[in-house]
Structure formats: structure tokens, C-alpha cells
Amino acid sequence: MRYLTALLALLVSFGGHAADTQRPQFTFTAIPDQNEAELVRRFQQVADYLSGELGVEVRYIPVKSYPAAITAFRNNQVQLAWFGGLSGVQARRAVPGSEAIAQGYEDQFFKSYFIAHGSTGIEPADTLPQAVAGRTFTFGSKGSTSGRLMPEFHIRETFGESPGEVFSRVGFSGDHSRTIALVQSGAFEVGAVNYAVWDKAVASGEVDTDQVSVIWTTPEYADYQWTVRGDIDAQFGDGFKKKLTAALLAIDDRAILDSFPRSKFVPADNDDYRAIQQTAESIGLLSDF
Amino acid sequence: MTGFWGQARSLRKLTFWFAAIAAACLAFADIDITTRSPGHELWRMATGLVTPRIDDPQQWLDAVITTLTFSLQGVVLAAALGFVLAVFYRRAWVRILAAALRSVHEVFWALIFIQVFGISTLAGVLAILLPFSGTLAKVYGEQLEEIDPAPARAVQSGDRQSVSHFFYTRLPLALYAMRHYTAYRMECAIRSSVVLGFIGLPTLGFHLETALRTGDYGAASALLFTLLALVYSLRFWFRAGLLWLLVPAAFIVRPISANWSAANLAQFLRDCIPAPLRHDWPLEKTGRWLAWLGEQVASGAWNTALLAQIALVLTGLFALLASTLNSSHFVSGMARRTGDGFLLVLRSLPEYLLNFVGLIILGPSMLPAIIALTLHNGAIIGHLLGRHSDEIEPPAIPTGPLGRFAYHYVPTLYQRFLAYCFYRWEIIIRETAMLGILGIPTLGFYIDSAFQFLRFDVALILIGVSAGMTMGADFISQRLRRNLRMEAF
């Protein structure tokens, strides 16, 4: 009985702690596009930085999937999110009035790499090599811009067929780190990956470039951006959006920038992603039939 | 139709047809091993398994508490709701409601409730509460039907339907079995609670997914042992005497809360209306939408049926063999306890987790799902069957273990064995559909895609198809069990 009382007291104290943190809080999330440990490291730095700049407590919550990030944004569980091109378009359609406010400098000219396992013998080329046809192929997440949307668009452009018809097997690895791991292990022969994640993984020695290498680079397109809810000023006071935008654009801490990796953040608006939306509609991902 | 049911009276014929269907399915199924060097990853997993590591005790404790509170709150509420449904289980609409509730997998319920209530305790508890109350209603209902009717008849009350008549003449007879089964559901709830973490709720599964995905097998092994410890420790703390303290504690520590607004709910409900009706599309456009949807339904249902039939037969085979590990006819003493423990551990590992690990080792095909379903369900049936075999007499003529198995053990237990398998059939279909979330093209794959692109109308239709398949299997297995006079309990 004594133990039970102690246990109950302990549990109640936890409950009290939980109740304390129920003040309105500025929270953001990000699409889980790569290794979660890396994301937590990166966005914890961002949260600390924003707390200092904005004078409110800022919290980052990790999520498990792209739609979970969009749902959290729609349900106002987060007010700000680091979305990919496509997930940003989806989120802004779900929350009228929301806006893209900043993107990485590199996100204006983003690209995807097609990577292949060494055993395929596919040589790098200026166009998508015909030799990928009939191979096994993995995308990243189903809702990824660089790992799904743009690669699928170019596959359809090149072969005039859907990926399911071009390849002998099509998979969705879930994120870019996993795509690299799967192609490197040979579980899939070819894959499409975010170039920034690939370059960073190669630089840090996580990729065995004898096993897996880049065979084609897509043309450029607009990708990741910070998107904020339209009602944020109503929630956190007039001028909050302006302050937030300024704080994001002013990030000059190399540690934070390198963790993305981006050289700096630049202004963005919803129109920057019109082409992404049209591409998604053209290949039926956001289509109206 | 009656011809088929009549013919199926023979157990041997029935077994033959199920095995033949499974063999035919195997010819269509995609069961390649696509990784080139599974050995390396297996070695890393084995090393991780023996070096468990908890990096962040605070985070770990938080996940343990959430896992326990979700399951405890879910089971207690499900037991209450299931009990109410069970009392009225004779009515057809109650039986249909219960079947519908349990035909949708926890993970699908969670995907829906996360859309409405955000990542919250309410979403997690509801996802466990609804399907579990359907299952509990069925089992409680059958337990109440199977009791000795003599006491109920003996008491001459003016009103046979009165509440006190029920509480004094019928309930006490079923209560022991009901409590026993509720304790087993608590074990299932802990597993479900962990699996909900894989799709984003803050239970142990959340961190387990991260650890497995990033190849951090030391951390994964610590979480796995935590899951096993939680399941094993149930027998010490999941007791009526302690629940008076634990249940209120669970509601205090993790009060049920949600993150929702009327506007979002309205939007979600509007999105659930099929697109052609919602946007009033012209006929031609509706046709294109229907064709696109039909393709997903056909492919998803086909692959779900394919995989489930293979898994069902392999589950049966594995269960028959594995049951000997927990049977007094074959093992005793230490060996028996080890066998029992082995089956209990295997049963405690959710098929979602087994499939996840299988994909890492073997690569993407149906093979990991088949193995996961076989091991998990086979261990459950094997454990029950082995324990049941203790009740049958040893053979009259002593023979070697192989002869005993083939000529005494299997024939005597066969009817009971098939009853267990058919009982599990609907669950295997439900789980097969759900495992599609991990990438095999069963219905879950298309459901996940629909959620990915916020097409809730499509998601709900596909969930409905999966529920329909589960209820179909439930219906067929009930008829077969009735015709063959099988008893599962």
C-alpha cells in the first residue's frame, strides 16, 4: 500500500507538470524527410534561436509522416512548419490565409538526383538514362517533392508511362536517408533523392560511393519553405508574422544554416510554388480528374 | 449455397480447399528477397539486441506512461462499452455494430481520429476503445450465451429481462471467464498502443520506429524489452484490487484531451463526402474518378485476399507445430516453461513491428508480411492449442513423438485447431489490410496514400472495403464453425 501511495503521488506530480505547460505556445514542425535524429538536432537549434528573437517560448515537435505535419498545421497544433514544395501547397490549400514566408537560398533552384547501385552499370548522363527501365526503383515519401513529385514527372516525360509500367518494382522508402540506404544495400537498384540530403551524406562519409552513385540530375524547381498560418497575428499579437519572418531571414548562425544545409534564407511567397502545384496536378497527385 | 455448406461438413475437405487456395495464391504473390546482403543487417540487429541502451530516461518514461495510459484507458472504457453491448448481444443490430467496430483496425481508426482531434490522447484512446469494444462485446456476448441457463430459469421473477435478474443469475456465472479475457485484451491493448506510436502518437512505438528506421538497434532493443516487460508484468498489476487506483491514476496523468475546432471538424466531414457529390462533378469526370478508385479497390482487395489466405494456412501450420512446445504431450518441466515463454514472447511482438523488421532484413515484397502474420498469429493459436492439449488423454498405445503427433495429437485436437484458425481469420484479414501502410499493395497502401493527399473520402471508402472483407470472413467462419460444431472456448 505504501508503494502504491508513492506511485500515485508520483503520477499526480507528472499530471501537475503536464497541466503547467498548457499555456498557448508557439510550436512548429517539419516534414520528416530524413533521419529523425538529425532533424531534432537541427530544429532544436532553430527553436532556441526563435525563442531568443521572438521573446516567446518556441517548441519543435517531430512528426512521423508528411500528412501528420500537414494535419498538425491544419489543426493549429503548430503555427509554423518547414514544408517541402508539395506538402506546402497541400497545407496552404488546407488552411486558407496561410503563407509561405521564407525559403532557403538553394530552394529557389532545387533538384533531385537519380541514384543507382553500382551493379546496374548505369552510366551518368545528361538525360534520364533509358537503362533505368525495367529496374527496381524507390521514391522517398509518397508526398515528397524531390523524392516523388519531380522524379515521377520526369519519368513520365521520358518514358510516356507511369512509374509502375516503367520499373519492375516501385517502392516508397519514406524518407531520403532511407532511399540512400536502400539503394546502397541493393534492395532497390535505382532511387530518387533530394540533392541536398545526398550531398551532405556524401560529405560526411555516410555514403559508399563505390556502391551507389548519381546517374542523372533533374532540372531545377522550387522546393522547401517556411509556411505560417494566416491567423498567427490574432493568436500571438499584431506584427508577430512580420517579426517571425524577419527572424527567419536574419539567421546567420553557420551551425544552424549548415544543419539544413542552406547558405541563407530569402523571402518567399505562395506564387513561388505555383509551378509545383501545376506539376502535381498534371501527374494526378493533386488532380481534379 | 447450401450445397457448399453441406459439403464443407468434412474437416478434411475444408482443410484441402483452404490449402489449395493458399497454394494458388502463392503462385501470384510477390515473395522475392530483394536485399543483397541481409546478413550484415542481421548481424547489426543481433549486436543491438544484446546491448540495449536508453539514451534519454525522461523521454523513455514519458513514452512508457503514455503507452500504459492509452491501453488502460482504452481497455477500461472498451470493457464498459463492450459489456453494455454484450447484454443486448441477442439483437441483430448490436451484433452488426460490434462486428463493424472491430472490423476496422486500430491504426485506421487512429489515422481518422488524428485528422479530427490532432495528435492527442483522445485520438489514441478512441482508436483502441472502438475496435476493442467490438471484440469484447462479441466475446462477452458469447460467454454469456454459453453459461448454464438453469439458475436463470430457476428464479421465478416477474420480469425475466430485469437488471437484477441478469446480475444475480447470469452475470456471476460468466464473470470469471470475462475477467480472464479482459486481462488478455489488456495485453493486446499494450501492443496496439505501441503500434499507434509507429504512426505518430507518443507511445513507445514512436521511438521504436525512429530507432529501427535509423538502424540504432541498441535503442530499439531497449524499447523492445520494455514492451515485453510491460506485457509480462501485467499478471502482477492488472488486478481488480489495483485497478481502483490505477484507472483514476491513468486519467489524472494523461487526462483525455483533444486538439480540435468546430471549423476543422466541419471541414473534415465535408471532405469525407465523395468528391463527385461534394463538387457536383459532371458524369464524365465522375466516371474517371470511379475508374481510378475502382482500380485501387480491385488491386488492394486482391492483394489483401491473396496475402491473408497464404498467411492463414501458414499460421495454421506453424501453430500446430509450435503448440507442441507448450503441450504436456511433448515437453515437461524446464523445456515446457521455455517453450511457453518463447510463444509468449513471439505473441507479444506486434505483426506491424515484425513486418517492419522483416522489410529491413529481406527487402520490399510480401514475404516479410507473410512471416510477420504467421509468427504472431501462429504463436497465439499455438499457445492456446498447446494449453488445451493438456486436457486430452495420452494415447492408449505409447509411440514415438512423431507417431504421437501424427496419429493422436493432431486428430484429437483438429476440430479445436480449426475453430481457433477460423476465429483468427477475420483478424488476419484486418491485419493484412493494415500492413499495406508499410508498402505492400494491400488496401492499407492505398488508404495511406489517400491520407497522404488528404483525400478522406477515398480513405473512408477503402477502409469500408477492408471492413467489408473482414466482416465477410467473420460471417463465413461463423457459418463454418456452426456447421462443423466447432467450439473455440
From TrEMBL, chain A:
Residues 1-18 form the signal peptide. It comes from the Bacteria. InterPro entries: ABC_peri_PhnD-like, PhnD. The keyword Heme does not apply. Transmembrane segments: none annotated. Belongs to the phosphate/phosphite/phosphonate binding protein family. PANTHER family: PHOSPHONATES-BINDING PERIPLASMIC PROTEIN. This is Selenate ABC transporter substrate-binding protein. It comes from Microbulbifer halophilus.
Automatic annotation (TrEMBL), chain B:
It is a multi-pass membrane protein. Coiled coil: none annotated. Residues 1-29 form the signal peptide. Gene3D superfamilies: MetI-like (1.10.3720.10). InterPro entries: MetI-like, MetI-like_sf. The chain crosses the membrane at residues 63-88, 108-130, 217-238, 306-325, 352-375, 453-476. Residues 64-236 form the ABC transmembrane type-1 domain. This is PhnE/PtxC family ABC transporter permease. It is found in: Cell membrane. It comes from Microbulbifer halophilus. Keywords: Cell membrane, Membrane, Signal, Transmembrane, Transmembrane helix, Transport.
